[in-house]
Amino acid sequence: MVDTTRVQAIASLAQDTIPEEFIRSSNEQPAITTYNGPAVPDIPTVDLNHPDQDNVVRLIAEASREWGMFQVVNHGIPPEVIKKLQEVGKHFFELPQEEKEAYAKPPDAKSLEGYGTNLQKDPNGKKAWNDHLFHRVWPPSCINYQFWPKNPPSYIDVNKEYTKYVVEVADKLFTALSLGLGLEGGALKGGAGGEDIEYMLKINYYPPCPRPDLTLGVVAHTDLSALTILVPNEVPGLQVFKDDRWIDAKYIPNALIIHIGDQVEVLSNGKYKSVLHRTTVSKEKARMSWPVFLEPPSDWVVGPLPQLLDPANPTTPYKTKKFKDYMYCKLNKLPQ
């Protein structure tokens, strides 16, 4: 099987089994490793528009320290905007394969943008049950419309409208996270690239899978972004690793799921934790999600904020480096 074979095409042929390269080891298989015991905790949920904004800051900071992930409701993105985002993304993945391939990621590309299947290198040659589409959505100067689908015709306008709202949500989150560290409201956004932060949309498509007990849609990882703002569909699958166990994320209609990424962990000098998470798949339904990764520009240098270093003992476990170098090491499984 060549690397360009898409999971969606494999799924359409599968009957009651899946190819060997998709079968995870026993310490990864969802049927074995998902926690189903008593008192399963819920990922924290925060009302972003609550009148007590000091409490909002406290709840976001607590969730970011203890979980690295939280959900937000009353975030200001109209439900109809989210619904349209989901509709046009689903439309794209239901197109004939040759139409989707028109947006394929070039084989020699240094960017992640485009339609594809494989992302990170797996030392054991294993694959995830997932096809995806990447393209930047903000700022306008970094957009390459080559990778934005022209079918459905409304795709571009819908994504532009959604992005307008996401930028506003991101500013609120960065401000709350900064205040939660006792810093000025613009500290973390400034450390991650300020107005030059790049917003990379990824649409994940996880086809129905005949053996969801054996495989994963996305394997366990932390995001290399500063923050990730994610819209899921109604099919469950997102799991977070907490207290040495894998816990299912509860689906809340129209909520956004926020991931603390590696760059905010670095900037906060470890006070906020980049969340280890993975995705399972369904036997009956296609699961989809729409994460937007907030990333520093490639040449932007990220390191712990000086305000969070002790002048008397400025040592830190986090290295200061260009984002592009961090990303290269992360995707190629090299030490940072």
Automatic annotation (TrEMBL):
Residues 196-296 form the Fe2OG dioxygenase domain. GO terms for biological process: flavonoid biosynthetic process; pigment biosynthetic process. The keyword Iron applies. Its cofactor is L-ascorbate. SUPFAM superfamilies: Clavaminate synthase-like (SSF51197). One of its GO terms (molecular function) is L-ascorbic acid binding. Keywords: Dioxygenase, Flavonoid biosynthesis, Iron, Metal-binding, Oxidoreductase, Vitamin C. The keyword Protein biosynthesis does not apply. It holds the Pfam family 2OG-FeII_Oxy. InterPro entries: DIOX_N, IPNS-like_FE2OG_OXY, IPNS-like_sf, Iron_ascorbate_oxido_reductase, Oxoglu/Fe-dep_dioxygenase_dom. Belongs to the iron/ascorbate-dependent oxidoreductase family. This is Fe2OG dioxygenase domain-containing protein.
